[in-house]
Amino acid sequence: MPLEKLQFRPGVNREGTTLANEGGWYDCDKIRFRSGYPEKIGGWAAETYTPFLGVCRSLWNWITLKSFNLLGVGTNLKFYIENGGAYYDITPLREINGNTPSVGPPVVNASTITLTASGTVLTVSDSAAEGLQANDFVTIAGAGTIGGVDVNGEYQITSVLSGTTYTVTLGTSASGSNSASTITIAYQINTGFPIFTIGTGWGTGPWSPYISTTLTNPFATTNGSSTITVTQASHGLTTGQYVSFTSISDTSVGGIPNTALQKSFQVTVVNTNSYTISAVIGQAPGPVITYTANATSSSEGGTVVVRYPSAAITASSTRGWGAGFTTGIGFQLRLWSQSNFGEDLLFSPRGGALYLWQPGAATSPAFTTRGSVVSGTDVPSKINEIMVSDSTRIVIAFGCNDYGTYDTTPLDPLLIRWTAQESYTNWSITPLNQAGSYRLSHGSLIVGALQTRQEINVWTDSAIYAMQYLGPPFVWGFTLLADNISIASQNAMATAAGVVYWMGVDKFYIYSGRVETLPCSVRTYIFSDINRDQLSQVQAGTNEGYSEIWWFYCSANSDIIDRYVIFNYLDRVWYYGSMDRTAWLDSPLRPYPMATTASHLLVYHEAAVDDGSTNPPSPINAYVQSSDFDIGDGHNYGFVWRIIPDITFDGSDTSGSTFVEPSVKFTVRPRQNPGSGYGVAQSPAVNSKQNYAGQTTYNVQQFTEIVYSRIRGRQMAFKVSSDTLGTQWQLGTPRIDVRPDGRQ
Prior knowledge:
Layout (H helix, E strand, L loop, with lengths): L3 E2 L19 E5 L1 E4 L2 E4 L2 E4 L9 E8 L5 E7 L3 E5 L2 E4 L3 E6 L9 E3 L2 E14 L10 E5 L3 E2 L2 E2 L2 E4 L2 E2 L4 E14 L5 E5 L8 E2 L11 E7 L2 E3 L5 E5 L10 E5 L5 E2 L2 E2 L6 E3 L1 E4 L2 E5 L1 E2 L7 E2 L6 E4 L2 E7 L20 E2 L4 E6 L2 E6 L5 E3 L14 E2 L9 E6 L6 E7 L9 E8 L17 E4 L6 E6 L4 E5 L2 E9 L3 E9 L9 E4 L2 E5 L4 E4 L3 E3 L5 H5 L11 E5 L4 E6 L9 E6 L4 E6 L2 E5 L8 E4 L4 E7 L2 E2 L9 E5 L2 E2 L7 E7 L2 E2 L14 E9 L13 E3 L19 E7 L1 E8 L7 E2 L3 E6 L4
Parallel strand pairs: 5-58, 10-11
Antiparallel strand pairs: 1-68, 2-59, 3-4, 5-57, 6-7, 7-8, 8-9, 10-19, 12-18, 13-16, 13-19, 14-15, 17-18, 20-34, 21-33, 22-23, 22-32, 23-29, 24-27, 24-33, 25-26, 28-29, 30-31, 35-36, 36-37, 37-38, 39-40, 40-41, 41-42, 43-44, 44-45, 45-46, 47-48, 48-49, 49-50, 51-52, 52-53, 53-54, 55-56, 56-57, ...
């Protein structure tokens, strides 16, 4: 028989069987399609191997008036400004406490502070401390030494003992105490969580029928322990079942805030009248908060309502079967939004206040200056997302608290408020400015917003709106574009070439003048292997150089991002793979798209050939595999005895490797029928005949001319893969020499 070309349709299709997709590609990882042909994606290089703290969820790039190219990096623990590979901590402070009060900025609250060291544990007692939370950062100054050890510096809270007492870890063991009047402690804003954990609604508490009862002072605590004993006569529980507590009248139990106990807990039964629970909230690999009692007590809590499953439940009892469980508290992951007001940076954690960082007028940015809360008139204190309109210089808050007493008015998740023009401090509505507000009507909360060429698109959890500037007196107009749609997260949308794309909870959407479902040839594959509890982690971004929209998400069995899917809007094709990227930014102000990894590094994509997040770089394992093909309709077996490769290695760089000839494997996988497993495959190597050390372009391609095989089957699949350093490739149209080989 003549040689047969292996020419497949571009893009990957997983919407049918591998035989139904004959003539197409079926599986892949770390490849893209360019001009219809698959190639290995570009590698990435680390900006620096010094990691930042926390999981990054937001990147923002801008250039100051002094031409400094800055990058805002928002993590669940910190907020940084990156410049030249260095990370500068500008995380705002929420309060500074000390023995000597002062007026700001910053204000120092009057407080009595005592530091007690025992080994590497430093116990801090601060009478003015508020809102303490494990993992928060504090900076101690003016304390000098304890037992010869300098205790000044920044620490992360390891455990909260009470509302005013907590512990941190010293780098060197010490013994003694210090309550000098010169001590001050600066508290950074509360840290957030790297992933979403627990949550309200389904799956957060007892699934069985339950009953409720009111207990009086049921809790017993032991000083220094996180285990709490609950007294409940004839409870009927077994170890491993769940209970939940609500309406705890005492503000604390053994120094543990009542808010930490108004959740669901798994019990360990002690006897028929008591059981224990653990005040360790959360579970690895997610965030874990440990609450430790600061006193031994046998009767605390006041009046407490407990809901619990009961073996003695009767038909007349209150039942919760089929009801959502509402007492579990969801720990939302920390998401940031950022925008520029001129060269100044406005930024806000989701649900937090609005902060400002100014680079200053000096010859270098004021990296030692932290962000500060924006003060002014009627500034919202709780904001889900912030944006500055490019065309009007109006600051807009999406989901925020309404006008009223600062920090006491609850957040309205559907309310949009905006400032007077050319101001980020004036949020008051007057006849002389354009400040105002508008409450959306469809949905229960605003999920996110995206600024496009002519309008701002706003997504609720069930609708999308267009927000357009009208000028006085209405200022902004709102048009409902589509209802009964969904969106995965605050960062699940991207815009390219004037078109908006986003990931929903079960499909993809496109808005190009009207909202439509985006056809996806891997939809079933993606949404059948996705962790829906972690949809808020979904991150979208563009790679304009290759006409791509990327989405990063968590697979079904992962709580961290480990997968991606790409839509090539030029070729209208899809492909996917595995990769951990927590944030993405394709900025024209820097030469390559930027991303952050699960190992807390900033990397530049398309800037290398290999995986530069490791030192030294590691090879990238890339492959693409076809669907099954056969001879005719599979009447006869086919016998493949040779393959004529067609592949380029342009872009390879083996300068840092002893292996100087890039190489790929051509694999042919046979099988007898669609329902049978693949037989023994053969994977001959195809090597470049050129040395790519330090070279970049070649006019004539030279590689292995023929590879030989002995493959027999009714159907076959073709695969090209690479796993060596410095290898870059693009597949052309290889040919196989296949002949009929009988029917049995």
